[in-house]
Write a structure and sequence with these properties.
- There is one protein chain.
- The chain is 44% helix and 22% strand.
- With 337 residues, the protein is of the alpha+beta class.
- The longest helix has 24 residues.
- The two termini are 27 Å apart.
- Strands 1, 2, 3, 4, 5 and 6 form a six-stranded mixed β-sheet that branches. It has a four-stranded antiparallel β-sheet with strand order 8-9-7-10.
- Helix 3 packs across helix 4 and helix 7 runs antiparallel to helix 8.
- Bound molecules: (R)-mevalonate (MEV).
- (R)-mevalonate binds next to helix 5 and helix 6.
């Protein structure tokens, strides 16, 4: 009986999983409604929810106890604490409870929280899944509705999120994503073979709201400059999509390098990211770029073989990356329940 109830609890928790992500092409530009490409990583956040009804209080803002057991790079949880709280509250505003209640949320999973990996999106999407599981009123939520709830939560972290992170957290796999004036457009991309990568943290936690806000200010100050970069990006992304589909890793890598240059020009890279990108290439990566918000956060390297993957991971550690991960983009970590 004990074994059975443990299994049931594990299965319930597994249902709330939401993936981390890495952007292959198009961070920042995606905010301005051009396509970007994102791959979910296999690591996930999950959420256990315990609910107790109370006699007093507001159903739209339940009394919350949050236990955060997610692994994280140093500083991440402290720096993101207020934004995370706001994000969680926004999800409950979007999905109000039926009655006043006390709720205990326990976040866990194997996704190491670091700027750039979509940890905030994974957290709010796992929360939306836990709400669906726990509250009868929400038991019929569709995946699109889970994604929409995640998007509401993401506004706690970003001023104007494109929605790419919560969409990757919800659906997994490799996605082409485009923000629009209405619902986002996204499609699952098929690739012939998994794409081996290494990603590494600079150890610096950045604020997406601040960096996206600064890019917006620069864009408004000099629209021509921004349009020029955007055009270059769009041409590059189109070629990147073709390379992905054809499994042409050499071209894919070259385009990742080019995307990194555009992000440098956009001023969202930084010395720590540039140094890691250079170290990865020197160790045999066939392409490398920063990924996500930038000005800290993560970089990503394309490593075609196990041998190159090991060499690049080692080189990144030597270059001072406090955390390095080996993984691959593939299309079978999607969820369809
Ligand atoms: C963050 O992972 C990606 C950004 O493009 C912001 C967004 O799309 O919401 C920087």
């Amino acid at each position: 009986v004990v074994a059975d109830s443990t299994t049931v609890a594990e299965e319930r928790l597994a249902e709330t999983r939401a993936f981390g992500k890495l952007i292959l092409f198009g961070e920042h530009f995606v905010v301005y409604k051009v396509p970007a490409y994102v791959g979910a990583v296999a690591a996930y956040t999950d959420c256990a929810m315990e609910l107790e009804e109370t006699t007093e209080g507001d159903a739209a803002s339940p009394e919350l106890e949050i236990v955060d057991n997610r692994p994280a790079v140093p500083d991440y949880k402290v720096k993101k604490f207020d934004e995370a709280k706001e994000a969680i509250n926004l999800v409950f505003k979007h999905l109000p409870m039926e009655k006043p209640c006390k709720i205990k949320l326990t976040f866990g999973g194997d996704l190491c929280c670091a700027s750039g990996i979509g940890a905030s999106a994974a957290q709010v999407v796992s929360l939306a899944r836990a709400i669906k599981q726990t509250v009868p009123k929400y038991s019929n939520m569709t995946e699109d509705e889970i994604n929409a709830a995640g998007y509401e939560g993401e506004k706690g972290y970003h001023g104007t999120p494109s929605g790419i992170d919560n969409t990757a957290a919800t659906f997994g796999g490799l996605l082409k994503f485009q923000r629009t004036d209405g619902e986002p457009i996204f499609e699952k991309k098929k690739i012939k073979d998994p794409i081996k990568i290494v990603y590494a943290s600079t150890g610096l936690t950045s604020s997406t709201t601040e960096v996206v806000g600064d890019v917006r200010a620069k864009k408004e100050k000099d629209p021509e400059w921004f349009d020029g970069l955007m055009k270059e990006y769009c041409a590059l992304a189109e070629k990147g999509e073709a390379a992905m589909e054809e499994g042409d890793l050499t071209t894919l890598g070259k385009l990742m390098d080019e995307n990194h240059v555009l992000l440098q020009k956009l001023t969202v890279s930084c010395k720590e990211l540039d140094d890691l990108v250079v170290a990865a290439r020197a160790a045999g990566a066939i392409g490398a770029k920063m990924s996500g918000t930038g000005r800290g956060g993560l970089m990503l390297a394309l490593t075609p073989t196990d041998k190159v993957q090991d060499a690049v991971a080692e080189a990144l550690e030597k270059a001072g990356a406090p955390q390095v991960w080996k993984t691959s983009f593939h299309t079978n970590n999607t969820r369809d329940f």
